Amino acid sequence: MTLTFDQNTYRNLLTEVVPVAIETEQEYERVLKVVEELTFKKNRTTEEQALHKLLVILIEAYETKNYPMEQSAPHEILQHIMESSDTRQADLVGIVGSSGVVSEIVNGKRSISKAQAKVLSEYFKVSPSLFI
Predict the structure, then answer these.
(1) Where are the domains of the chain?
(2) Which residues pair with 39 in a beta bridge?
(3) What is the DSSP letter of 15?
(4) What distances in angstroms separate CA 52 from CA 16, 85, 111, one per listed residue?
């Protein structure tokens, strides 16, 4: 089944959200709220996925400029995503490996393989590059 992209639906989403380059903290907070809602929405449409991707790019540009920070380790990013989504280590057993493997990955004792990064990215609906 191929998902089609409906330009009218996308246009309506854009009209509702009005994405612009983020210049203020207030605009940042507004866009961040929309992204969080889309991130945790079940069964996002193709148009919502496109809007989510666009808004994430705008947020990343603003954060890079205004909140420069050191690169986090992949396991720290995984810990943050797990905490934000109320995911337990037990939820990842069978997805990335045994309970021992999951524990080692989450605690930074084992690096995340490319295959595991791909599976985690699909599970959390984020870019696999976060885990590599």
Answers:
(1) 7-66, 74-131
(2) none
(3) H
(4) 13, 17, 28
Domain at 74-131, CATH from 1.10.10.10, 1.10.8.60, 1.10.260.40, 1.10.10.60: 1.10.260.40
The single residue listed with the structure tokens 């605690």 is: 107
**pTM for the structure as a whole:** 0.53
pLDDT tens figures, 10-37: 999 999 999 999 999 999 999 999 999 9
C-alpha span between 119 and 102 (Å, rounded): 13
Closest CA relative to residue 99, chosen from 83, 85, 114, 110: 110
Q: Helix, strand, coil proportions of the chain in percent (round to 5)?
A: 65, 0, 35
- Is 68 or 41 the better-scoring residue by pLDDT? 41
